[in-house]
Amino acid sequence: MKIIVNGNEVVLDKEVVVKELLDKQKVSMQQYVTVQVYDDIISRDDFEKIALKEGDSVEFLYFMGGGAQ
After folding, report:
1. Are 2 and 9 in contact (CB under 8 A)?
2. CA distances from 18 to 5, 26, 47, 48, 67 (A)
3. Residue 48's CB: how many other CB atoms inside 10 A?
4. Could you give all domains of the chain from N- to C-terminal order, each with its CATH number?
């Protein structure tokens, strides 16, 4: 199965849920990552429920805050 992760093609041997993909891609600080599949932001509560399908486009997003000096 092929999907696109952050613009790169990834080949998986079987269907996975979002949480498994995070683990397989060795995403650090998973508690801070936002996952987008196509244009949909996936709720953290659904990471173990949403199965990815052939051709899905997935983005791992980190929102960083900053302040003025």
Report:
1. yes
2. 11, 12, 5, 6, 32
3. 11
4. 2-62 (3.10.20.30)
Kindly report the number of other CB atoms within 10 A of residue 34's CB atom: 13
pLDDT tens-place string over residues 12-59:
999 999 999 999 999 988 999 999 999 999 999 999 999 999 999 999
Question: Tokens at residue 51, please?
Answer: 């199965």
pTM, two decimal places: 0.86
Residues 6+ apart with CB under 8 A from 35: 18, 22, 41, 42, 47, 58, 59, 60, 61
Which residue has 């051709």 as its token pair? 55
